[in-house]
């Protein structure tokens, strides 16, 4: 563990954000205020570790970013934007950014710990999710994105790799690196992951919050099938398929989810189903009811078993 630095040297634009970088003791946080545990994940500019505060033993995840890599990658502004956005989002299906601090070489983001781990790993292990699980996740992500959009925040990079699973099995959006605060609701930057890009981005047109609607349509397909709908051998083929919303369903995907996915994967952003429409879609509501009944039955059986013993 590093010694507590004598001088904190923020990189570029992060300096003015440092006003919130104070603990209840009135001093600056440092890595020495935490016990660092096992690694949780690795990214382009650093790694994430399980951590615990020495005072109060509060668990968190700490993202450790190297300043030199951020500067050479030209992403200081992107990090500043990520911090500004995520620190103001308080929703049960969004990972909280509690605070951040820095030393001479690194920046540390203190984040909510999600014990269930990465959604991508769970999907890889299971290959695909059951309809009730997929519907539950779709409801939760639609609820979280509805909250973001009300705050004029567009996520722009929804995919399983950026989703986590909380202590109660709930979905949590965990990465806001490509997010923007866009009150005008029109952006030009091409960003996100190839398989999840909407037609308007692929075509180089301005985009709006409707990019998130397209992304959750792709996500729902991947939840149920195990791979995204526009995955092709070559990038040009993927882009061509996206522009025309051209894909096919495996036979086992039923009418309900096909209807939802089809209403989200519309080439015209204005025709995509709204987030309220997702949460109130007949398939989503039916699957949630099915899941709730199954959980209630399990609880009754558990109670009866305990009585018998």
TrEMBL record:
Which organism was this protein described from? Caenorhabditis japonica
Q: Which biological process, per GO, is one annotated for this protein?
A: chromosome condensation
Ranges for domain Protein kinase: 34-284
Q: Which GO terms describe its molecular function?
A: ATP binding; protein serine/threonine kinase activity
For whether the record's keyword set contains DNA damage, the answer is no
Q: Name one GO cellular component term.
A: midbody
- Major site of localization recorded for this protein: other
Q: What does the UniProt keyword field contain? A: ATP-binding, Chromatin regulator, Kinase, Meiosis, Nucleotide-binding, Serine/threonine-protein kinase, Transferase
As for subcellular location, the record says:
Midbody
Does the record's keyword annotation contain ATP-binding? yes
Which sites are covalently linked via Glycyl lysine isopeptide (Lys-Gly) (interchain with G-Cter in SUMO2)? 159
Q: What is this protein called?
A: Aurora kinase
Q: Which residues form a coiled coil?
A: none
Q: Which CDD domains match?
A: STKc_Aurora (cd14007)
Residue sites binding ATP per the record:
44, 63, 112-114, 161-162, 175
Among the Pfam families in the record, one is: Pkinase
Active site feature: 157
Xref: PROSITE patterns: PROTEIN_KINASE_ATP (PS00107), PROTEIN_KINASE_DOM (PS50011), PROTEIN_KINASE_ST (PS00108)
